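Protein fold
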Amino acid sequence: MNAYSGQLPRLDVVIGNNFGHLPMFVGAEKGIFKRHGIDAHMKVVDTGTDMVNAMHSGEAQIGDMSVTTFLKAVHSGEPFKVIGIIMNDATRDNADEPLGIVTRQGAGISAGNVADLKGKRIGLARGQTSDEYFKMVLRRAGMKYEDLTIENIWSQFGLAPALKDGKVDAVVSWEPYVTAVLEQVPGSFLVIRGGHHMSYVMVATAHGPTVTAKPDVVRDFAAGLAGASHYTRNHRDESVEIFAKWVPNTDVAVGKKAIRYISYDPRLSGAVMRAFEAAEDEVLMNTLKGAPRLDVPDQFRPSFMAEVEKAHPEYFADLPPLK
């Protein structure tokens, strides 16, 4: 948005190695952030915990993370604010299609029957969004987390081998790893995909001090994000190929299938706010019992993306209207 002379302002950005962060890779690779006056340096990590740690230590000023990771970080005292939405469907508050549970033949679990998971060994990354999602699935099915044995598989690349070798009976993950497991494990199939349990939203967050001290830089970063999201929506196959350059061992063919289940809509809406309120309910119920409730709207700085939408309506023209 701003025309800088000389050296562009640098922002260190921590992002995850999954498709929830895909527009960030695209924005860096295609020069979209630079076009909007930002020299964005990307640090790729495995989990939301890694993202929070990088921002906490000052290694990054901007971080992508899931809603639940963000809320838990703010509860712990981190001064993060939401400046944009990355993986998101702004038209509804229950878009969880990137999440799924996968099992294999012979495990005693049938497609669509969550009750079959009782007493089974489940592989997932504890404390991450897949874990929060799984708790919601179980609760709706009238089951308890303690009714199963949880195997903590921190790296998503470890899920397929664990299921294939029979170390677990099912795995819970997000895309592209749900599709990767389905492709890599013979006889594997979905127990469920999504199910409208939650809205799996990935947010771009900034340190509160950065927002206060450098609002122009944050706004220009938001413009880059909007432009990158637009490009990703309209060049999905190319975006997967870009992702593969940054994340080793990515199966491009799997990625091109997986990306069909993901929306990239940077807009803040009533549905997004409802999704955040519901996520806060879950955090207080499952993880931080007894903690005071956050003022969820106060965690947002929507003016940045609103300015971008006004200045660059072309980045939003292909999105469905909000009700």
